[in-house]
Write a structure and sequence with these properties.
single chain, 414 residues, alpha/beta, Rossmann fold, seven-stranded parallel β-sheet, 19 helices, 14 strands
């Protein structure tokens, strides 16, 4: 199997430059990796401190890593933090808005034996954290050969994943980790089923992140004034499929105010949606802040959404009908009920299914279902119970980052 894997990587490396001629995203993927080792060497030559390396697939996984990075830096301030990305979208966004916690951002090179050994050999990390998934055989082998401590955090496994088949090659990717920190009990049971006994269930680190955001949200005085005593629904990361459900409800509830943050900042869909709303709807960028007549405000910039949920009576989170559900934990961090579209594969979004079980998440398939949930939550008792369920769920997962860092330090000091 190892030789099939190597052959597959070899073929992919040969094909990608050809595909890049016809694909902007693949071209961007390859261009971003040019000069990778030179940049890495220049960074490493400047520092003598030990390094903790976090590898993430994209921005969502970085959000799961961030609370752990914060706690680890508090416990060991001498550590330099390196974050590697596989996805250009995650790399680009963090590069535009660098975190003061991060000392170096890089792409992960393609997973050949030579490149993996070169990457790890230059970086010489003391601690390595993979986040959730995105396991690469040669990089994992190079890490193990370097004697760095290797951890997996925020793991959430499913029974249908190849790691739990009878193929030893994939089982060994799991067994290479010194400790695995899982989000749930099912993941513990799955890794134990293949003979791995160093799993620790700590919960989802994103809860620490959203609780931190909710305790210190950005201030928007103009929105506070605009809202007044009105109820507000905040719709975050919405696509056309989501707006097809929401537009009838906006027109049915003229007394309710809506803050809508689309997934894309393309102005054309927003202009079209505004034309379909019977009351006044505006773009945030063109809003005269002295005016309070609008019923709907479309947020046409990046960076506000996670704090906008503070204004919500309830939230709608988009993406379930398309590429994937966005972060429902952000509104739950503000202890408000959250509505989202019917998931095609619930196992890929365990937090969504769990929110339904907890009583603070509501899955909908059409506009009628949205209307039903809004009316259901109009009952004070039902609404109060849903908010309490969100708070209880938050508290049960709080502190997962602290537990991870405590176990990591115990392991490395033993």
């Amino acid at each position: 199997m190892k030789w099939f894997y190597r052959l597959g990587i070899f073929i992919i490396r040969g094909i990608l430059p050809v595909v890049a001629l016809f694909s902007d995203s693949v071209n961007h993927f390859l261009k971003g990796r040019k000069g990778l080792f030179e940049k890495l060497s220049a960074f490493r030559a400047k520092i003598n401190q030990p390094i903790a390396w976090f590898h993430v697939a994209s921005l969502g996984e970085f959000e799961q890593a961030k609370p752990v990075i914060e706690k680890l830096k508090t416990a060991r301030p001498e550590l330099k933090i390196v974050v590697s990305f596989f996805s250009p979208s995650g790399f680009d966004q963090l590069s535009k808005k660098p975190s003061p916690l991060i000392d170096f951002i890089t792409y992960l090179p393609l997973d050949s034996k030579r490149q993996a050994e070169k990457f790890v050999g230059i970086l010489k990390p003391e601690l390595v954290f993979f986040v959730k998934y995105d396991f690469w055989y040669h990089h994992i082998q190079a890490i193990k050969n370097s004697n760095a401590a290797l951890f997996l955090i925020s793991a959430s496994f499913r029974p249908d994943q190849i790691y739990f088949s009878r193929i030893v090659f994939f089982q060994n990717l799991i067994k290479a980790f010194d400790l695995i920190f899982t989000q749930n009990l099912q993941s513990i049971e799955l890794i134990e089923s293949i003979g791995y006994e160093k799993g620790v269930m700590v919960g989802d680190t994103r809860f620490d992140r959203v609780l931190d955001t909710a305790s210190n949200p950005k201030s928007f005085p103009e929105l506070t004034q605009w809202i007044g005593s009105n109820q507000v629904i905040v719709a975050g990361s919405v696509w056309q499929e989501d707006m097809d459900l929401l537009l009838p409800q906006i027109n049915l509830n003229p007394s309710m105010r809506w803050i809508i943050a689309p997934h894309s900042l393309d102005p054309e869909p927003m202009r079209r949606w505004i034309s379909l709303i019977s009351s006044q709807a505006i773009l945030y960028s063109t809003w005269d802040k002295k005016s309070s007549d609008a019923q709907v405000i479309f947020i046409d910039n990046i960076g506000m959404l996670s704090s906008l949920y503070q204004f919500g009576y309830l939230a709608y989170v988009g993406g379930a009908f398309g590429k994937g559900l966005h972060n429902i934990l952000e509104p739950i961090g503000f202890k408000i009920p959250v509505i989202f579209g019917k998931l095609r594969r619930k196992e890929k979004f365990p937090e969504a299914e769990q929110s339904i079980k907890e009583g603070c998440g509501f899955e909908v398939s059409d506009s009628k279902a949205v209307k039903h949930v809004i009316e259901k939550l109009d009952d004070p008792t039902t609404y109060s119970n849903s908010k309490l369920a969100a708070e209880k769920w938050l508290r049960s997962n709080q502190g997962s980052s602290d537990r991870i860092v405590k176990e990591v330090l115990k392991y490395t000091e033993s």
